[in-house]
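Budget justification note: compute hours in this period were largely spent on complex prediction jobs such as the one shown. Inputs:
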Amino acid sequence: MNAPINPPKLHDCRDAFATTLERLATENEKIVAVCNDSVGSSKLGGFKSKFPERLVNVGIAEQNMVGVGAGLANGGRLPFVCAAAPFLTGRSLEQIKADISYSNANVKLVGISSGMAYGELGPTHHSIEDFAWTRVLPNLPVIAPCDRIETAAAVAWAATYDGPCFLRLSRVGVPDLLPEGHKFELGKANLLRQGSDITLIANGTLTHRILKAAEILAERGVSARVLNLATVRPIDEEAIIAAARETGAIVTAEEHSIFGGLGSAVAEVVVDNAPVPMKRLGVPGVYAPTGSAEFLLDEFGMAPSAIADAAQALIKRK
Amino acid sequence: MDTTELERIAREIRLRDLQAVFEAGAGHIGGEMSVIDILTALYFRVLNVWPDQPKHPDRDRFVLSKGHTACALYVTLAKRGFIPEEEISTFLQPHSRLNGHPNCNKVPGVETNTGPLGHGLPVAVGMAKAAKLSGAKFHTYVVTGDGEMQEGSNWEAIMAAAQFKLDNLTLVIDHNRFQQGAALAETNDLAPLRPKLEAFDWEVTEINGNTMSEIVPALEHRGTRPHCIVAHTNKGHGISFMQDRVDWHHKVPSKEQYEIALAELSEAL
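Corresponding output:
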């Protein structure tokens, strides 16, 4: 397969989040946005100008921000609590556990600039632990959309879902992958490419990279299945078990630590149901060096060609 | 309901709480005794709540942020008709919904799950803000322990409440001067609390938090700013040998001590 002559247009998924939230807020007066001085980085400027009263900015105080979200939900509002993912999850994890997950508060947590989106700002600003921290919490769907279309669909879904969830968004540009009008289904993987020799699974900013890896593999005579697994919890066990049984090997790739994230979640399903060789690509349990998000993904072995290499090495272990 | 009647109910709640802690072999009796007068005033005089409609949108909100004193809340809720009074005997038993800390998805009348300290006030700020956004008339009350005010999240919420001008929010600090391991004064002494809250632009009232005639008007007060009631209380109030003794934070009385406490509280009835 030849590479496209013109590289695809890349989109910042925050824009899809913001425009969808504004549209939903126009239709539903209960929707409020809660943030921690992150109006700009959460792209809430438009929301603020349209609904100034409904933007609850608590200042730089994330524990209070999440608690306030729970209280707003108790008082009949529909809060989207938006902040940079490392601070939303890490700083206020106990609030997410007790006030949101355990209390089952109808709060939508929106982690912006997740993964290593703040590349050069360093590991304090990287959010490569958030899948691990959130996916152990009951009542809390964990979702990382792969493009602007899935982001808009997931935000629209969240507004109608009666319960909390964690939406993990990035600011790193990604191409369109899913068809316009795609509807988000909780816990359902999207089959992006059929294949029989191996399965590549990713979400968020990695999905387009594994698709490219599958194209490279095809050129090398390897048939790779590609699954976009936006929902890390509840996970699509059926699609994973089918992938294990039908292709016999699975590579996962994520903008997250390899400990406790998407790869771990897939491995849990595989080990319990259909053990096959696996390779988990991600940040290998280290603090990242200085560099942009794209540089760091390449650095940690997630350039499409490196993913293809890892897949071929894994196939040899089948 | 007048203060004499409220005082009688508070004594009954103390007695039932003591029995429940003794029978369960666990609880946080010191802080329960200190907060029971405040809970009684709230549930039998101040709060607009309807036990048969615990999720009524217009209900006043109450958050017990010092969730470890859940037993006192359960006894109060039972007496007010939210749960059966006989259910109190299941406190801490396997599969009882009366856990050591209150669960809003199991116990009607509980608004949010508390237990880890410093959670209730931020949630209460959200509740009060929700009322402001929707124009609802309900009032939000939250009770924290004084030791709990050492949690930084409370001060984040205090700042936000002032910024949002939440005149529909009342914070009661159960100021019994003791935390789990020692007196506040020996640990991280926040006293005096009044100037600290006033510096954050809250209105502050100081009361004797075990005196009903002071509790009720303070809770019913309405002003133009968020209101903090610094309720000076006694840990273990009502039981002579527990009073102001740090070791009664979560100690369980022996059979002999139980009989003495029972006699003291019964006499007061």
